[in-house]
Amino acid sequence: MKKIQIEQERTEKTKIDWDGIKSRINSLHEMLSKKIILSPEEKRSILKARAQVLAVEKKDETFQKEFIEIVVFQLAAETYGIESTFIREVYPLHDFTTLPDTPSFILGIVNVRGQIISVIDLKKFFNLPEKGLGELNKVIILHNEQMEFGILADIIYGTSSILLTDIQASPVSTNGIGAGYLRGVTGDHIIILDAKKILEDEKIIIHQEAD
Amino acid sequence: MRYFLNLSTRAKLLFSFGLIWLMFLMVAIIAYRGLQDITWSEKELHDVHFTIALELRQLRSHQNFNRAAVLDMMLTKNKTEQLAIEAIINERGQEISSIMQKLSKLNVDPLFQLRLKELGSEIDTYRQTRKEEIALIQNGKIEEAQKLGMTTQKDRFEKIRLSSSEMGDNATKEADDQLALDQQQANSAILLFAVFGIAELLFSIAMIMLLNKTIAQPLNEITKIASLIAEGDLNVELSVVERKDEVGILSQAFTRMISVLKKMATTAQQIASGDLTGNIIPQSEKDILGNAFLQMLNNLRRMTKDILEGVNLIASSSSEILAATTQVASGAAETASAINETTTTVEEVRQAAQLSSQKANRVSENAQQVSQVTQTGQQAVEETVKGMYHIQDQMGSVANTIIRLSEQSQQIGGIIASVNDVADQSNLLAVNASIEAAKAGEQGKGFAVVAQEIKSLAQQSKQATIQVRNILSDIQKATSAAVMATEQTSKAVENGVKQSTQTGESIKRLADSSSKSVEAAVQIVASSQQQVVGMDQIGLAMNNINQAGTENAASMMQAEKAAKGLNELGQKLKRLIEQYKI
Q1: E strands of chain A, at which residues?
Q2: By the CB < 8 Å criterion, does B180 face chain A?
Q3: What pLDDT digit, counting tens, does each position of B321-337 carry?
Q4: CA of B389 to nearest chain A CA: how many angstroms apart?
Q5: Arithmetic mean of pLDDT, B269-298
Q6: What share of chain A is helix, strand, coil (3-state, %, to 5)?
Q7: In terms of Cα–Cα distance, which of B423, B450, B424 is closest to B436?
Q8: What is residue A8's predicted lDDT score, i.e. its pLDDT?
Q9: Residue B188 CB-half CA count within 13 A
Q10: Domain regions of chain A by residue span
Q11: pLDDT at residue B259 above 80?
Q12: In the structure, what pLDDT confidence band is assigned to residue A208 with cuts at 50, 70 and 90?
């Protein structure tokens, strides 16, 4: 008798609410089968919210002052910025071709819409310590009148406007990067690289004739 | 005296008799010496003094004869006669010479020797003169011869005669003296002899008394005591003499013997009075009496002990027998009552057997019902097993469905990855757009806004993909949990199948056992009928036992009496044997 009682209790405990499950599945099914159609009010509200966000940014007082446009990206553990006037474009790095007999900072060459562009690893160029593996799957293509080459980046955050007055002179040697390649550091700890110097640096120019 | 007492008896006897013997020897020596002296003296008397006297008388007679012959010659004229007389004279002269020679050989004092020489020379001269006288006679000159004879020859003759007679008298006188001396000597010898003899006699008497006192009297005493001991009287005391001779040793040995005998006697008295605790130490290994006594005592002790044990055993056994018989007697009474009870019990058992036979009939009916029930139970179990198998199949399909669901969610993941890629690229595109806008300067500002919009869209879609990915991983976890649950369920179902199979088997066994119970019930019916018969037989047997019990009780009474007698005997024996102390 006792055994039977225990079994009854068990069945009561483990009894599954099949009806509830069925109704939940049905409602989900209905939700999935329904197309996501936003009402005009909803759309409007979304757009309005976005507009407000954008408007807030525009209200910034710095607008009147002198500022520069930079592209912010991450390399290793640091966040860097480069003036966007020296940047042709950013490009996802899918595959590249290594070049023999070149310095180690030259990763290789990539094909960007039919144009061959060499790619430099700034970490190696600046002799920065290798801190773990980054993504290194983005290329920022720098250019001026004479040079055009890409540098590797882990993450590209986007463009940003920075007041020139915000840029402070960096300490003498920040992370081993020569002071000549730096323009300074912002309050947000973005290291502003001097793209002009990098582009004009003669080290970059590799001229080696085959014997 | 002490020293003498300590001498051994042999030494004492040797000493006493030796002394006596020595005295005898002395007496004998003294006597012998005296007799020898006398003998010597007599011999000297005879050989010297009497010889001298006799020979000298002979000499004188020869001398006288020769003188007479010469005178004869003178008177005879006949020549032949003269010649004959001369021959006789020469013969006598020869004899005189031989006497002289004999006398000269005698061992006498020098004075006598001197006088003998003088006599000899006188005789020689006389002989010369006689020769002259004879020659004269033969020549016829008788007168001249007479004259010669009457003068010188006559003087000479007288002289010889006087001298020889004097010498003879002297010799006789000496002989008399000698005799007197001998007498004296003999007297003194007799005196000495007498003295020694008396001394010896006295000494012998003293020795006899001494020996009597030192040997015979103690021996006599010991003998008396020995005869007393022989008669069995041990209340004797021997005065202990500190002596080292045989008598002393004998008396000491006797004393020791008496003490040993007394000890034995006291021990024997103890034994006689029943005290066996005394101890006996045999004097030596050869002490037959002591050893025998010891053995006897030991045997007596052992025997008494054994008897005591035996008696105790008898006493205890008899009391045990008594107790046993009383128990048996009471047991017999109990048995009688028990038999009565048993008889009634047998009757009850008989009724019970009948009852059990009825019950067994009912049991067999019940068992048949049970077998029917088990058959239905078996069917139910089979159906359950079938249901279980069905559940297992269903569970398999559920698992498959879940796995398909999981695969589809994987596909969704792939789609999400591509969406993420698109968002990335859109982001880059937006960056490029904003760069281009920046290059365009003031004209590009609106474009920059669009680029910003694109960028935010890209970020939103990326966040959406992240959310979807999280949801997908949740789904993945849920599906794997569901798969696990179905697996467990399938296992549980398997167990259920197994258990229900077991249940079926148990029910089968139950059916078997119920059919067996039917058989058993039939057997019980049969055996309970047999029991009824057996119970009747037991009733009869009980009656027999009852009779035997009463007979047993009677014989137990007798046994009890016998045991009582035995017990009394044991007590008596115990009292008897307890007089002996071990």
Answers
A1: 67-75, 78-83, 87-92, 106-112, 115-120, 138-143, 148-153, 155-163, 182-185, 191-193
A2: no
A3: 888 888 877 877 788 78
A4: 19
A5: 82
A6: 35, 30, 35
A7: B450
A8: 60
A9: 10
A10: 62-204
A11: yes
A12: low
| Model confidence band, residue A62 (pLDDT cutoffs 50, 70, 90) | very low
Q: Looking at beta carbons, which pairs linking A123-132 to residues 24 or more positions away fall under 8 Å?
A: A123/A75, A123/A76, A123/A152, A125/A203, A126/A175, A126/A176, A126/A177, A126/A178, A126/A181, A127/A176, A128/A76, A128/A175, A128/A176, A128/A177, A129/A176, A130/A76, A131/A76, A131/A77, A132/A76
Which residue in A73, A90, A155, A159 has the most chain B C-beta atoms within 10 A of its own C-beta, making it the best mutation to test that interface?
Answer: A159
CB pair distance less than 8 Å for B428 and A159: no
pTM for the model? 0.39
Residues of A near B (CB-CB distance < 8 A)? 50, 54, 69, 71, 84-85, 87-92, 138, 156, 158-159
Return the structure tokens found at B114.
């001197």
Q: Which amino acid is at A204?
A: I
Contact status, residue B69 vs residue B137, Cβ threshold 8 Å = no
Pure H helices in B76-109: 79-105
Q: In sequence order, what are the beta bridge partners of A80?
A: A73, A191
CB atoms within 10 A of CB A74: 16
* Dihedral of alpha carbons B120, B121, B124, B130, sign: negative
Is the model's pLDDT at B134 over the cut of 70? yes
Chain centre to alpha carbon of residue A173: 25
- B563 half-sphere exposure, CB direction, 13 A CA radius: 18
Mutation for A interface: B401, B435, B468, B489, most A CBs within 10 A: B435
Q: Quick check: A84 and B434 CB within 8 A? A: yes
Closest-CA residue to B250 (of B241, B262, B259, B261)? B241
CB contact under 8 A, B438 and A91: no
**Is residue B427 within 8 angstroms of chain A, CB to CB?**
yes
Nearest CB neighbour to B435, from listed A54, A71, A92: A71
N-term to C-term CA, chain B: 53
Contact A90 B439 (CB under 8 A): no
Q: Do A156 and B430 touch (CB under 8 A)?
A: no
Residue A59 has pLDDT above 60, yes or no: no
Which fold does the domain A62-204 belong to in CATH? OB fold (Dihydrolipoamide Acetyltransferase, E2P) (2.40.50)
The residue type at B510: L
Query: Residues of B with CB below 8 A from A153's CB?
Result: none
Tell me the C-alpha distance between B434 and B444, whole Å.
8
A-chain residue closest to B459, CA distance: A157
- Name the residue with tokens 């700890």: A189
Interface test with B, best of A90, A113, A138, A154 (most B CBs within 10 A): A90
ipTM over 0.85: no
Q: Which residue of B has its CA nearest to A88?
A: B435
Shortest Cα–Cα distance, A91 to chain B (Å): 7
**Residue B284: pLDDT over 50:** yes
Lowest model confidence (mean pLDDT) among A65-74, A174-183, B267-276: A174-183
Q: For residue A55, give the chain B residue with the closest CA.
A: B449
Contacts of B455 in chain A (CB under 8 A): 158
Q: Is pLDDT of B288 > 80?
A: yes
A148-153 and A155-163 as β-strands: parallel, antiparallel, unpaired? unpaired
Contact A108, A136 (CB under 8 A): no
Residue B489: both structure tokens together: 């369920």
Kindly compute the dihedral angle of the four CA atoms of residues A71, A76, A78, A82, in this order, to the nearest 10 degrees.
-20
Mean pLDDT of all residues in chain B?
Answer: 84
CA distances for A150 relative to A147, B44, B455, B485, B529, angstroms = 10, 203, 22, 54, 117
